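[SOLVED] Need 3D model of a two-part complex

Original post:
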Amino acid sequence: MNTLQVEGVGLMAPGLAGWSHGRAVLSGARPFVAEAMPTAIAALLPANERRRTTATVKLALQVAQEAALQADIDPSTTPTVLASSGGDSEVLDKICAALTLPDRPVSPTHFHHSVHNTPAGYWSIATRCAAASLSLSAYDDSFAAGLMEAAALAWTDRTRVLLVAYDLPLPFPLSERREIVAPFAVALVLNPVLTGLRMAILRLTPNVERPASRLDDPQLETLRLGNPAARSLPLLEAISNLPLLGAISHSTTSRVTLSTGESGGLELEIEP
Amino acid sequence: MAIKPLAVTAYTVTNALGRGITASLTALRREESGLRPCDFEDAALSTWIGRVAGLEEEPLTGEFAPFDCRNNRLARLGLEQDRFGAAVRAARERHGADRIGVFIGTSTSGIGATEHAYRQRDPVTGRLPAGFDYRHTHNLFSAADFTRRWLALRGVALTVSTACSSSAKAFASAYRHMRAGFCDAAVVGGVDSLCLTTLYGFNALELASSQPCRPWDVDRDGLNIGEAAGFALLEWAEPDDARPLLLGYGESSDAHHMSAAHPEGAGAVLAMQQALARAELRPEQVDYINLHGTATPSNDAAEDRAVLRVFGPDTPCSSTKGWTGHTLGAAGITEAAFVWLCLEHALIPGMLNTRGIDPNLGAGVMLDNREQPLRVALSNSFGFGGTNCSLLFGRRVA
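Solution:
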C-alpha cells in the first residue's frame, strides 16, 4: 500500500497551457515561454453557472476536466481531493471590502462562493458526482498534503481519486501580504490498482529528511516557489520525462521530494 | 469487514456553554442555552449568537503573537481545557512528535483579522496596516499550524475546509492517514470563531433567525451562528476499549446546489448509509442521532427526509444547535464531543427552544432530555457546496 498509478494529468499556467503542451515544455522538447495563460473555460459547466462562477472555479474545473478526459474515467463516481492554500481570495476581498461600507452589503452570492469547497461543489454539480470530496489547505505545502490525502483515500477505499490543486494571485491589497506570482492549477487521476493503462507509477514515502526538489530552469523554479500548486512541478517534470508505456527503454526510476513542512519531505519514486 | 475502530483517548470542547467538557455537560443536563442577542463587535443585526466570553481580553503573545486573532485565541483557549495538552504530551512520548498528525476543520479561520485590516486601510494608497499577518491569521492553514505548534507536534498537518462539515470530515481524513501509515495517532479538531463575514453573509442569505434557533419547529426561521473550538486525540482502539470509538464515517456530495440542500436529502442518505456500512451496523442498532439541524426551514426538512429514509421514525434524534448555535466548521467536533458525553453519561439531549414540532416532519426528534444508556450514536454535519459527513460512534457498555 504505497503505490499509485497516474492515469491523467490536467495542467494550466502561463506557458503551460494543457498537459500535452506542458509535457513538451517540461521534458525540454519546447522552450518555456511564460506568456499569458489562455482563459480557462470549464466547458462542462452549464452556461448560466459559468457566468456566475469566478476565475478560481473555472481554473480548478478546467484542469479537473482535462485529467478526467485523459484518464477516461467516470467523474460521476470518482471522489475528489482539492488542495489550495488560500481558495478564492477575489471573493474574500470583495466581502471584506463590503464590510467596510455603510450597512455592510455582503453579496449573498459572494458569501456562498466564499467557502473553500466552492470548486468542489461546482464540480460535483457539473459531473453529477455524489462521491466524497475533501478540500484542504496546508499553505505552501498544500499540493503535497493533497497528494497524501488522495493517496490515503485511494488506498483505504480502493478507489480512483481525482486530485486538483490550484492557487491564483491575490488581489490588492492582500497581494502585498501573500505573493502568488501566477495562476497555476494541476489535476491528477490516481488509481491504487496498477493496470496496463498508465502514465506513471508513484511510490510515496513520507517523513524523509531531504530538501524539496528544485527545477533547473530558473523561470520554472520561480513559478514553483511562487505558487503552492506549482510545487507539483518537479513531479510533473519527472512524469514528462518518462518513456511512453510500451516504448523500448531501460526502466528508469526518478526521485522527487516535496516539502510537507515540519514533517519533512514526501519522497516520490516515479517510474513508467 | 468493519473498519478498524479508533479510540477517542482525550477530548475537549469550548463553546458558548463555557470552557471545557464539564461546562457543556452541565448545560446539556440543565437544558441551559448559551445563546444571546448578537453583541459581537459592532454588528447591527437582530439575531442571536453563541459567543465564547473573554476572547477579547486574551491575546496570544510571545512566540505565538503572529498568530493572534480571534480564531487562534479560541483555539488556544480550547487547547488549554480538560488537560488536553497533557494527554497529547503523553501521546508524544508514546508515538513521537513526528508521528502524530493534526487535522483541523475551519470554514473561515482568522478572516476576522482581514476584516479589521480592511477597515484600517491607508486612505490614500489602500494598503493594509503594517501589523497584519495574513499567513498566521486569515489563511486557512493557520488553524492547523497554530494547533500543531501549540502542541509541539511535527507530523503531517492540514486544515480541512468544507464549510460546515469541515471538522467532521477531519475525522475521516485522520482515519485514512492513519490507515495509510502516514501517522500513528491524530489530533482532530475544529475551530471557527464569530466574524462579520459569516454574520452578515448568513444575514444576506436570509438564513439567520432573529430569535433563538428552533430546530424542527413548525415556526423555525433560521439559524444562530456560534463559535467553538474542540479537539480530540485519536489512537487505534485496544481490545475491550471502554473509551468512545469511531466506528464509521460517511462522506458524500449532493451534486445539487451551492447553498441549498438537496430537497430529499439524497447526499445525507448516502453519508449515513456509508457510516453504517463501514461500521457493519444496522440502522436499528443506532440509539441516538445528533442532527445537523440548523433550524433553517429547508435544511431541517431535507435532513428529516434523509433520516426517515435510513432510520424510519423511531430512532431518537435531536439537534443541539439550540445550546451552542451553529458553530460552522467546528460543528462536527462540537457535536461529536456531545455524542461522547452522551455515551459516557447515559444522556440523550432533547431540543432547546423548539415548542411545536413541524407536522410535516417525521423523524423521531425529542424535545426533552432523557437519561438512558446508549451504545451507538450518529452525528450529522452538512454544508454549503452540498458536502455531507456522518460520523458513527460507539462505546462498550459494561
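Edit: Chain A has nine helices and nine strands.
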